[in-house]
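Ticket opened by: R.M.
Priority: normal
Category: complex prediction / small molecule

The reporter submitted a protein together with zinc ion and asked that the result be attached to this ticket for the collaborator who will pick it up next week. Submitted input follows.
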Amino acid sequence: MSTGPTHAMSGLLVWGGVSVAALGEALPMTPQTWIVGAVLCSGAALLPDLDHPEATVAHTFGPLTHGLSKAIHWFSHLVYRATRTRKDANRHGGHRGVTHTLVFAVLAGLGTMGVVQWGHKAALIPLLFLFCALAVRGLLHDWTPKGHALGVTALSLGLTVLCWHWIEAGPPEQARWCAAAVSMGCLAHCLGDAITEQGCPILWPVPFSYQTWYPVAPPKVMRMRTGGKVELGLLLPVLTVAGVWMSVVSLQRTGLAPWISYDLLTLHHIPPGLASGR
Ligand SMILES: [Zn+2]
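Result attached by the on-call engineer:
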């Protein structure tokens, strides 16, 4: 899948699922941290496509991100040509290159952790703005022309200002959650691309089948066409419903809605006093 809405929703679903699992293991997560993570993960699920200057997400901030995308495309091409084996395709390696790998997902997460540890709340605001814009741009996809950078910027700025008033300085574990959210968003993107016809070189630079850029993909019958009926008519609605549901469940488990006496995932009754204390 390569359309923006599907990628953004896959990021939201992954974050919802991971936070439900983490909260089940009693790892601490405040509702604020959950919101920050949801924005970062959904936005990061669009991040790898910055290596494609014609992708919708490359037009998030108009000429600014378009120029950045061209630079990433060029760098990605150089890395592809420098590290490909004879078995790898003799192609222009800019798109679905280095930003579509596990290595990039880990580095993007580590970079985010460094920035948040260094700048605390002051660093969260530009991060939220950037990833919010990526997510909004991805969700709007073809329904707004690529030129609507001003609208995307204004909407993301509004959402970021809302968050600014609500988010506290952040507990010590927040930087780790931010890192996890960005890494998982990138990985969700790679998995989404892997089920399309071209596959995704997630394993780079580890060689597989004598190829350092081996396109990881399921058997051909299980792959789908980008933007085709299966993606837009089946996968996107399923991801949207599942992503929203897991978000509501995980937000409840952060203690946001102590007045709801039933667990929204298991439908089990929550004993009084436990609802806000998990
Ligand atoms: Zn992609």
